Amino acid sequence: MNRPTRLLSTAAALVAWLLLAPTAQAADAPAGCPATLQHTFPRLQDEKPQSLCQYSGKVVLVVNTASFCGFTGQYKGLEALYAHYKDKGLVVLGFPSNDFAQEKGSNQEIADFCENTFGVKFPMFAKSSVKGPEASPLYQQLAQLSGTAPRWNFHKYLLGRDGKLVDHYSSLTGPDNKGLVRAIEQQLALPTPR
């Protein structure tokens, strides 16, 4: 084997190993936790670390949020969606972000705003980045799976009970959109993976 071929072979083996090697988070994840949920984020209200693996087996709607956006009123619809379907297995996960310069407050200010203005009860996490090289590992993963990073606040990613990406929706798709609701109901009708 000549030197260039050997280098290519070694590089290919290294790339394969890197792609297949478990991450530190994945190695610590409970058995059965899908890769999309093998992330830990500080809770918005008290910044205590929360593993997303606790939502394994649920239909998950991941939304990047902001308090001072034309779409901020979607909080009300997201909370209504969560309240209506949570007993059937839906969870809405909110990720405040200032990537679009519309979330300037502290985590506590965001938490107070969400609860006092919209009565938000669905899980919310500390402010983080959702696009570009600074995006959280979850959002990097969702962008890779969908081929689309959020282009604005209130972009939505729908994950099935198996943790696989079902679809993603732009900010223009409200929580009461018939297509989104139908997709959620279809996923809720599926059995929980074992």
TrEMBL record:
Q: What residue stretch is flagged as signal peptide?
A: 1-26
List, for all copies, the residue spans of the domain called Thioredoxin.
Answer: 18-189
- Decide whether keyword Transport is in the record: no
PROSITE patterns reported for this sequence: GLUTATHIONE_PEROXID_1, GLUTATHIONE_PEROXID_3, THIOREDOXIN_2
CDD domains (UniProt xref): GSH_Peroxidase
Query: Which SUPFAM superfamilies does the record match to this protein?
Result: Thioredoxin-like (SSF52833)
Q: Which domain of life is it from?
A: Bacteria
Q: Name one GO molecular function term.
A: peroxidase activity
Q: Name one Pfam family in it.
A: GSHPx
Which terms are listed as keywords in the entry? Oxidoreductase, Peroxidase, Signal
Q: Does the keyword Oxidoreductase apply?
A: yes
Tell me which InterPro entries the record gives. Glutathione_peroxidase, GPX_AS, Thioredoxin-like_sf, Thioredoxin_domain
Family according to the record:
Belongs to the glutathione peroxidase family.
Xref: PANTHER family: GLUTATHIONE PEROXIDASE (PTHR11592:SF44)
Protein name according to UniProt: Glutathione peroxidase
